Amino acid sequence: MSTPLVKMLTHRGPVQALAVDLTGHYMATSGLDGQLKVWDVRTYKLLQ
């Protein structure tokens, strides 16, 4: 696959870690910008 299904520009800089919950509904990301963000994967909306 050469084209991503979704491109999320979420952090100022590289993403250090990514985790998805067991249901696949939520994703947490952390970046070199020092922020931890929680997302609803179904809507791509920032929750926290």
Automatic annotation (TrEMBL):
Query: Which GO terms fall under biological process for this protein?
Result: maturation of SSU-rRNA from tricistronic rRNA transcript (SSU-rRNA, 5.8S rRNA, LSU-rRNA)
Matching PROSITE patterns, A to Z? Answer: WD_REPEATS_1, WD_REPEATS_2, WD_REPEATS_REGION
Where would I find the WD repeats? 8-48
Pfam families referenced in this protein's UniProt entry, alphabetically: WD40
Keyword annotations for this protein, in alphabetical order, are: Repeat, WD repeat
Q: Which SMART domains match?
A: WD40
Q: Name one GO cellular component term.
A: 90S preribosome
Superkingdom is Eukaryota
Q: What is this protein called?
A: WD40-repeat-containing domain protein
Species name: Jimgerdemannia flammicorona
